[in-house]
Hints:
By secondary structure, the protein is α/β, with parallel strands linked by helices. It has helices at 20-34, 48-52, 56-59, 65-70, 96-105, 112-121, 139-148, 161-176, 201-210, 215-218, 227-234, 249-257, 261-264, 271-283, and strands at residues 7-11, 38-42, 81-84, 87-90, 128-132, 150-155, 183-189.
Amino acid sequence: MTETAPRAVSVGVLKGGFGKTTTAINTARELAHRNDSALVVDLDDNGHMTRQLGFEAEFTSETNHTKRVLVEGEDPTQYTVNVVDGLDLFPAHTELESVENELRNATMGSARLRKHLVDPLLGETYDYIVVDCPANRGKLNDNAMYATGNIIIPLKPESGYDSGLSNTIQRLVEDAREYFELNILAVTPTALNSRIDQDTRDRGLLEQLNSLDIADDIVPSYARITEEEWDAIDAGEYDGGLPGIRFRGSIDAAHDAGLPVRDFDGDCDQLENYAELASIVERGGIDR
């Protein structure tokens, strides 16, 4: 296992509404809380993170800062904004689609985020960088994968979670691995809200993740369930904690308030799970 060190990670899944933004901002916040500094980069063209955090002016600015940095090579620090102590944001822009198009024709168009933002800032200005990726294939996603070399895949117990995982691994991770190293640091279930002693989507998602051949390497401990524990659950004898990152009203309320969960509700019981994700990023993988 790689020792704790400055590291960049993408948060991505090829399906919208699966918790990318929530996972990215709260993992980045925990990294900032545990270390000196972290930067979260919003590359999603819908700008949900940027707008939720209250930076609508940056999202709609006449200056397309994403183009200025990724295409023209300007200093990214002149466009970062502070979210809370220790955590900064490189915001999305409403014209990210035009940046996508320009990167298709640019020399080394998939390497621009690494060259102009990650390499200059990681380990110098920020200890950790977290990239919130678009939910579709393209040059912005390619840039995120190449720049970070690591990915966290969040999954919600909603229709299509199985195809969301398989498409992300096959069409994003495996395709990228044809050209460079890309590590899956974690696959995390998020926003779980149903019983797991019945045939629910929550249970189906947890069963699928825990049955993967590589579950020991990619499923965080808060989402691991052994066969013996499943037997206890079905017998009504399980007394362990509920697995996965659970839905909490304070997580939704934090969105509305434009804050990470830690800064809205420091007593939220799900912070320990985001802290585990942060620890996985710090170590470069899951250490059993």
